[in-house]
Amino acid sequence: MTNPVLVEVTRGPLVESRHRGMVIAVDGDGRTVFSLGDVDAAIFPRSACKAMQALPLVETGAADAYGLDQRMLALACSSHNGEPEHAALAADMLALAGRDVSTLECGAHWSFSQPVLIDQVRAMDKPNALHNNCSGKHSGFICAACHAGVDPQGYIGYDHFIQREIRDAMESLTGAALGHDNCGIDGCAIPTYAVPLKGLAHGFAKMATGTGLAPERARAARRLIDACMAEPFYVAGTKRACTRLMQIAPGRIFAKTGAEGVFCAAIPEQGIAIALKCEDGTTRAAEAMIAATLARFFRDEPEIEAALLAEATTSMHNWNGMHVGDVRVTEAFGRA
Amino acid sequence: MTNPVLVEVTRGPLVESRHRGMVIAVDGDGRTVFSLGDVDAAIFPRSACKAMQALPLVETGAADAYGLDQRMLALACSSHNGEPEHAALAADMLALAGRDVSTLECGAHWSFSQPVLIDQVRAMDKPNALHNNCSGKHSGFICAACHAGVDPQGYIGYDHFIQREIRDAMESLTGAALGHDNCGIDGCAIPTYAVPLKGLAHGFAKMATGTGLAPERARAARRLIDACMAEPFYVAGTKRACTRLMQIAPGRIFAKTGAEGVFCAAIPEQGIAIALKCEDGTTRAAEAMIAATLARFFRDEPEIEAALLAEATTSMHNWNGMHVGDVRVTEAFGRA
């Protein structure tokens, strides 16, 4: 099927660009409550599934043994801006396991946020692996391996203990078989597996509700989601969509983006989760789509609905500050 | 019609993201020689039509009166990186008209190129309007207005002399009526008009061949295209697609990108021009599409064809330098 146009970018009186995509919301039993486009298609979740990838950190007992606080658990699920607080907290996590930046295998990059990048350039010659947007996740991997008595060296490899644990957890949550046939390498060097969008949403609905999960996994899942909702700055950072969305309804919305236009979210109190992908991989469209989808579930709370719908439309201004157009969702989302 | 998928982004063994778009190549008489997707759709050319917008600079006699050299004419057609050479040359152009940076009305922004941005942050507190990627075009506007005896203040306005001159030239070249109904505001604050993709290509084919143009316009058009081909660094900058494409066949390929996934090109010796747009506005896809389309016209010159096809596929590496996937054109382009 051809995916529908879900986001339009306007300029003056006309539509300039169009983004297609697929969106699904499901409950803990996997029942579809909202759907647009080809939701059976396999997509790479990329960083949107970091909360799933953090399960071994809690389930191995490492989080308790090292005394990780909620900020650290949120950082383990994050794609952060590389702001000083993010880099420092990743270093703190590594120190609890007796490690430091040299154990990280994620590589280094300047912040994707221009204001943060400018601050970084003024403060340092070059970034290190602590500034990588995935450093919290990787620090969590290292904590889990060290606590389990496994050498963390090579932890990014397909056959390492931590990647096998993640693969098992994600297979169970998403219902998809994961292996070399649907495996790619992520930006931070670990394996990433393409799964049907519907399975990805169902996995997050299980995490948010505990439906069908063993008690320890249900507790670990909810603990990670609660940590993200409690510390949204540590899931992304200043002005980032994940952070803003979670701040709109504190403790009630979980939201996590992934590269190439992916977004996942959950509303635990309603027992539903959402997964979506912009077909062409564009972040601006995925951000509008997740906000509009979330808004559908807050129609009884006009202030929250309005705040989410405001996130679903972004005014674009030129270098002189003049309004030139908007990024906005299409009628496919209905009232929302 | 639904535009076809023209570019795929792979990760490991799978396609991760897909870009749709439309492409047309025409000759000086407007005959279609290659076409994909809905080429009658109106699109905003954005910066891809800067060579058309520079016609008044030459046709008013300003370029000769102020002694603008080929680098300056190229810069007048450019979306440059804001490298020191670009900013300095824009200042030189303004000085020839007795003006300086304070006359520019394009606003200021940090370079879109990360390496250049980093150099800028280390060299200055903040960028000024000379660093705006459109400063060469705006300096050309100011030269044209000053030479014509018109106050340049307000030159970005719809009713200013220079914008009327541009509107007249673009209507004549593209065959499209331009007015408020299809007018938006560009990133640099001047009017931009949506025109059918086919008309945009025909306009560039007329510029490259002179077909149907008055002798003065034909000379001015060819002079601008020749200047861009002679000084490709001043059309874009270090590592930029426009610059690289023109360097592959020096003096034989003209290429100019525009925001939101637009690319225009011409091969004057073959009498053809190309216009394309990625439906979703993504630059990586537009760059692959223009390289693959240009390659079709160099099948008799294997070295040039191979160099262009190499530009049509971009290997993606993660922060550790591992190959993770490719941006590549689809079978829609045939052998190319």
Please state the structural category of chain A. alpha+beta
The whole-number mean of residue pLDDT values of chain A reads 97
What is the gyration radius of chain A calculated from CA atoms? 19 Å
Helix content of chain A: 25-40%
- Count helical runs of chain A: 13
| Oligomer classification | homodimer
Bin the strand percentage of chain A: 15-25%
For the biggest sheet of chain A, the summary is: 8 strands, antiparallel
Biggest chain contact = A-B, 52 and 52 residues
Order of helices and strands of chain A: EEEEHHHHHHHHEEEHHHEEEHHEE
Shape designation of chain A: globular
Low-confidence stretches of chain A: none
E-strand count of chain A: 12
Give the CA-CA distance, first to last residue of chain A.
24 Å
Keywords:
homodimer, 336 residues, alpha+beta, eight-stranded antiparallel sheet, two-stranded antiparallel ribbon, 12 strands, 39% helix
Architecture blueprint of SSEs:
2 copies of one chain form a homodimer.
Chain A (H helix, E strand, L loop, with lengths): L4 E7 L2 E14 L4 E5 L5 E2 L6 H4 L1 H5 L2 H4 L4 H7 L7 H13 L17 H10 L11 H13 L13 H14 L8 E3 L5 E3 L1 E2 H13 L5 H16 L10 H8 L5 E5 L3 E6 L4 E7 L4 H14 L5 H10 L1 E5 L5 E7 L7
Antiparallel strand pairs in A: 1-2, 1-12, 2-3, 2-10, 4-7, 5-6, 8-9, 9-10, 11-12
Helix pairs in contact in A: 4-5, 4-7, 4-10, 5-7, 8-9, 9-10, 12-13
What does this structure look like?
- The structure is a homodimer of 336-residue chains.
- By secondary structure, chain A is α+β, with helices and mostly antiparallel strands.
- In chain A, 39% of the residues lie in helices and 20% in strands.
- The first copy, chain A, has 13 helices and twelve strands.
- In chain A, strands 1, 2, 3, 8, 9, 10, 11 and 12 form an eight-stranded antiparallel sheet that branches.
- In chain A, strand 9 and strand 10 form a beta hairpin.
